[in-house]
Amino acid sequence: MNMTTIKNHLLNVKDGHISYYHLSKGRSPLVLFHGRLENGNCWSRVAQSLMGTFDMYMPDARGHGKTELRKKDYCLDVLVDDISQFFRAKKLKNAILIGHSMGAGAAALYAAHTSVTVKALILSDPPWLYKEDYQDGDSTLVNKMKKVIEVNREMSLESLTSYVHFINSHWHIEDCRLVAQAWKEVSTAVSFSYTAKVSFAQWEDKLQSLRIPLLLLTGNHRKGGILTPKSINQIKKLVPNCEHVHFSRAGHSIYRDCFDDFVSSLNSFLQKIQ
Predict the structure, then answer these.
(1) Domain total of the chain
(2) CA nearest to 41, candidates 63, 10, 18, 65
(3) In a domain, 185, yes or no
């Protein structure tokens, strides 16, 4: 597959601007939300591999990429409000949402809040554990993440790409470059604790309102996947219209660990709901 550069755009909103990447293959809106420490451009290889006539948007979340928003609070409700602003400004309706990790959690909550603008939901390893299972509440972990972000931003893109590829030798080199670029752009503001202001642990009551098709993609919990079998079973109970695909060879970054199988699962689901 020949990779093309996906153009970056800035969308003015009430408290700044939201950066997003746009790839048009048709008129059906499809919006992809990235995980923490990443940016919208990290979806480039996936977006270019999707079959169908989609008008694809890949926004940078606040604190990530080139998005600049004056409000500094970083909680789940704020992320959802950012999605709402983006949808209103772009006048998107009947869209399919794809989200990874943090982006999956925010996309799902947005979908639960609306019955008009979302047609279907695809979630890749959302951060949905039971509160007692989270290990991110220690302030030392937050400070450690801040330091890592600061060090990464000082490295050259070439050196950081080489490092990402060294620790993830099975990833495509383009994915390594995209991740490295995202790491250089991210703000230390995203060094939040999941057990602090960002209430990702409070997800069960939100899922019960979902009435749209859901594709849940999970990795191996023993290899770094977030969702445990306990959480997966609960999600299936709460969302009857849920299709589940498990990637035993993948960790948390499923679309980089098992790119071809990930894209195949997406295309199969998208063909069924179009």
Answers:
(1) 1
(2) 65
(3) no
DSSP 8-state code for residue 94: S
Mean pLDDT of the 102-106 span = 93
> What is the C-alpha separation between 10 and 189, in angstroms, rounded?
20
Q: Is the pLDDT of residue 133 over 80?
A: no
For residue 114, give its domain range: 7-134+197-273
54 backbone dihedrals φ, ψ, rounded to 5°:
-110, 145
User: Tokens 């199969």 sit at which residue?
Assistant: 268
Q: What CATH number did the domain enclosing 241 receive? A: 3.40.50.1820
The runs of H, that is alpha helices, within the chain are 44-49, 76-90, 102-113, 139-154, 157-167, 173-185, 204-207, 229-238, 254-257, 259-273
Q: What is the pLDDT of residues 54-102, one digit of tens each?
A: 999 999 999 999 999 987 677 778 899 999 999 999 999 999 999 999 9
pLDDT value of position 197: 46
* Domain annotation covers residue 116: yes
Which token pair is 125?
A: 């390893």
Task: Note whether 223 and 251 are within 8 A (CB).
Answer: yes
Collapse the DSSP code of 163 into the 3-class scheme (helix H, G, I; strand E, B; otherwise coil) and give the result: helix
Query: What is the DSSP pairing of strand 54-59 with strand 68-69?
Result: unpaired
Residues in CB range of 174: below 8 A, 6 or more apart:
3, 44, 45
**Per-residue pLDDT reduced to its tens digit, 37-48:** 999 999 999 999
CB 163 within 8 A of CB 148: no
What is the bridge-based pairing of β-strands 16-24 and 68-69? antiparallel
Helix (H) or strand (E) holding 218: strand 214-219
CA distance 179 to 35: 11
